[in-house]
Amino acid sequence: MNIFRQNQLLAIILIPLLSFILAGCGGFKKVDSRKIPVNVNERAEKNIQDGKGFRLGSKKNNGVFEFASSNEMWRASIELLDFTPLSNVDYSGGIIITDWFSEKNSANESIKITVRFLSNEIRADGIIITVHKKTCNEKNNCQIKKISSNLSQEIKLAILKKAAIIKDNELDRDPDYKDPRISD
């Protein structure tokens, strides 16, 4: 009797599981073999175009990689914010967030800077700087406010200038330097 219950429990688990797995297959479709390329590379290319596969890398720009070290805006931001501790740095997400920091003489006030990248290009509209100010009283009750001041504009301008200098230095070092983001 005990073996019967185990088999019954196994059947109760396996039948729905197999049903879901087989339902995901979508069945078989008739295929005209005359429309399928014989060459393996052509067949793989057709499958990718039809959305039936994936490719690691692209044929168009082989050897061109966008790392943080090749993005002038990113490098400029990291260099300019190196005086403060960073709490979140995510190149793929395009964001740098500093930790709360303050000057030595203002123990009750601190600021946090957020840099969001909207573009890899050196443009004023390709970057957003947000500054938050935290003010705490003696009982450690703190208020956090987003502030609109010249500080965010000054940081943005400094990043843009530094990025332009970094790009110019790249061009001076290697006259054959080609920006990987610009295709022929």
Compact summary:
The protein has 184 residues and is an alpha+beta fold.
Key phrases:
5 strands; alpha+beta; 184 residues; five-stranded antiparallel sheet; flat
Q: Tell me the number of helical segments per DSSP (H or I, 4 or more residues long).
A: 4
The biggest beta sheet, please? 5 strands, antiparallel
How many E-type strands? 5
Strand content: 15-25%
The global form is flat
Question: What's the end-to-end separation, in Å?
Answer: 75 Å
Given as residue ranges, the uncertain stretches (5+ residues, pLDDT < 50) are: 61-65
Alpha-beta content class: alpha+beta
The chain-level mean pLDDT equals 78
How much helicity do the residues have? 25-40%
- As laid out across the biggest beta sheet, the strand order is 1-2-3-4-5
Provide structural commentary.
The protein has 184 residues and is α+β, with helices and mostly antiparallel strands. The chain has a domain at 68-173. It is built from 4 helices and 5 strands, in the order H-H-H-E-E-E-E-E-H. A 5-stranded antiparallel sheet has the order 1-2-3-4-5, with helices on one face. Strand 4 (127-136) and strand 5 (142-147) form a beta hairpin. Helix 3 crosses helix 4. The protein is flat. It starts with a helix and ends in an 11-residue tail after the last helix. The relative contact order is 0.10. The model is unreliable at 61-65 (pLDDT under 50).
